[in-house]
Amino acid sequence: MRTCGVEITGSDVLLCILTKDNDVFDIRDVRQTRFTLGDGNDTEVMRKFQFDFRKLMQDYQIDSVAIKERQPKGKFAGSAKGFKMETAIQLIEELDVQIFSATTIKEQLKRNPLPIEFEDTGLKKFQENAFISAYVYLMRKTYKQESSVIYLV
Fold first, then answer.
1. What pTM was estimated for this model as a whole?
2. Residue 27: is its pLDDT beyond 60?
3. Which residues pair with 7 in a beta bridge?
4. Which distant-in-sequence residues (6+ apart) come within 8 Å of 137 by Cβ?
């Protein structure tokens, strides 16, 4: 199972590719750990971003993407460019894209703590949240944990 963890900050998409095979994790080297979006109002720029992201996922045979959710409003709200990039990623048909809230990530890490200190992974500091998103996705997939559903009668 190959997953690309994504964190969107401002006009950057930060990436980390993590695979899990027989309970063994492998952090993949990737030729591009960051995408930066120029003019998010230009349709061609958005199409190029989506094409480039899709191509990277195809080249590394990624089947799922885990995105850390950004706040829609408030002090830590995401930018309009960020939401556009998130949508462009979600619209790539061949990818299973999941968005995880900070609460979901925290709960999952409590159930399944990281097996290694982040500093020992060899990744750059800016990739930490992308790595954690990919790890959370893999743990939820492994243990078949779905998001909580509340039924009102």
1. 0.82
2. yes
3. 14
4. 3, 5, 64, 66, 98, 100
